Amino acid sequence: MNDLNRWLLIPAVILPAAASAPAFAVQYLTVEQAQKVLFPAADQFEAKPIVLSAAQRRAIESASGVRVRSPEVNAWRARQGGRASGWFVLDEVYGKHEFITYAVAIGLDGAVKGVEILDYRETHGGEVQNPKWRAQFTGKKAGDTLKLDEDIKNISGATLSCKHLTDGVKRILATYEAALK
Amino acid sequence: MSALARVPGLADVSYQRARPLLGTLVEIAATGSDAAQVQRAIELAFDAVETVHTLMSYHSADSDVSRINRDAFNAPVVVDAHTWRVLAAAQAFAEASDGLFDVTVAPTLTRLGFLPRHVDFPRISGQGDWRHVMLLPDHQVRLARRLRIDLSGIAKGYAVDLAIQTLRDAGMTSARVNAGGDLRLYGDSAQTVHVRHPLGATTIVPLLQFSEGAAATSAGYYASRRYQGRQIMPVIHPGTKIACDVTRSVTVLAQDCMCADALTKVVHADPEQAAVILARFNARAFIVENDPLTGGCRVLDTAATGQHHWHARWGVGTQHV
After folding, report:
1. CATH number for B281
2. Domain for residue B240, yes or no?
3. Is the pLDDT assigned to residue A6 strictly greater than 90?
């Protein structure tokens, strides 16, 4: 046996559970920054909020296979020199422990031009399922009222909800087909 | 350093962005002297990640990996230089670990439901291993047995390295790329890296600090599935073809992320042998396990020497929470 093999037998250290963080949040981009990043050449973003009809919701759900939780669509039409260059759609997804705000850019051909995350929030309480918990972030910077550990930026270990995000983008594409095209 | 590199006295600008890529959330942060320059560098770094994603995805039908799986038994397949580099590295890790790292475990991952089935892929023979993946001149790849390869155990690390290189070339003074646990950074100040508790993923514990190099964590918390009554993760022991348990997480530190990424699989497959192999690559591993007595975590450390930039956060008494 090599000397190096023995390390396995003895724990180097025990991390107390109390050292763990209760929650954390990252803000990557504001809405304006995300618009600029996804449509660098655009000079105007015209807000075009939409409320989906029941028929549109059904169409989106059957086309994407993803549940439509809210009838409201936060959409902007990107323009460059007065000419439309695509849609910017702001959306959110949440799972058991995480809440993600993201934006999808859709080009004139109806294809996804890009996806950017605006905010990522994670907690190990059950708060995410509570609409009031989520509402407190709307239009605010993370951490205003919640005790979040913003010091945490490097987590080696997967983020929670790539699946929710992938489903969200599918749903937004179907929303484009049903209501924005 | 490029002409756009930092001018002393000017305030630095930092941005961090995240996009869904490589089946996870890829986060890129960079600091430079000019806002537009930083954003452009991040954009280019995301492009680099996307290039790797497109070339080495098992899921998409026209990736280099799928072309190898479909055709390389019948005739040599020419692949991109990036794919070639990753395959060459994979072979080196396989050789050094005596097959503990093996890119040919794809059929087992498919059987366990971790990888999709491709109806147009030829049947496999069930024989052969990494030794039967032949790297021929001019970026040609040939399979000497009816095999299937999957590069997801190493390509994510390579994508991170490529993104970091792009950020350096763009003159960023410091940068960080994190692809769902495959993390690499450089810059002046040491950063704390946290890992998730192997049994409670939303509990996050600080593990170590470093200012230059890579850390890759492999654990089952989101990737795991239930199979025949056992919770398993998509890491297969190439010898036994049995999936590893989910009870521990493995974090490997190395100079580059591809190395760190690949070695996490070696540590999962055989922790006892891994220490010797890690030392050969100047790498170091932390295994994090649940501590049933306290509800906290036990950390096992290979404590390799010669790692100038590493400081085990909990080993040197710098704890502050």
Report:
1. 3.10.520.10
2. yes
3. no
Cα separation, A75 vs A88, in Å, equals: 6
Q: Are B111 and B155 in contact (CB under 8 A)?
A: no
pLDDT at residue B202 greater than cutoff 70: no
Using CB atoms, pick whichever of A12, A162, A165 lies closest to residue B299: A12
Query: What's the ipTM?
Result: 0.79
In this predicted model, what pLDDT tens digit does every residue of B66-91 receive, in sequence order? Answer: 999 999 999 999 999 999 999 999 99
Read off the pLDDT of residues A63-99 as tens digits, 9 standing for 90 and up.
999 999 999 999 999 999 999 999 999 999 988 778 8
Closest partner residue to B18 among A18, A28, A157, by Cβ?
A28
Which of B154-158, B239-243, B247-251 shows the lowest mean pLDDT across its residues? B239-243
Q: Do B39 and A116 touch (CB under 8 A)?
A: no
B122 domain residue, yes or no: yes
Please check whether residue B241 lies inside any domain of the structure: yes
pTM here is 0.84
Tell me which chain B residues have a C-beta less than 8 angstroms from the C-beta of A12.
Answer: 286, 299-301, 303, 312, 314-315
Q: What is the CA radius of gyration of chain B?
A: 20
Which residue segment(s) compose the domain that A108 sits in? 21-140+159-180
d(CA A38, nearest CA chain B) in Å? 10
Q: Note whether residue A132 is domain-resident.
A: yes
Q: Are B35 and A134 in contact (CB under 8 A)?
A: no
Q: Assess if residue A12 is contained within a domain.
A: no
User: Taking the alpha carbons of B49, B50, B52, B56 in that order, is the dihedral positive or negative?
Assistant: positive
DSSP secondary structure letter of residue B161? H
Contacts of A151 in chain B (CB under 8 A): 192
Contacts of B217 in chain A (CB under 8 A): 156-157
Q: Which domain holds residue B222?
A: 190-316
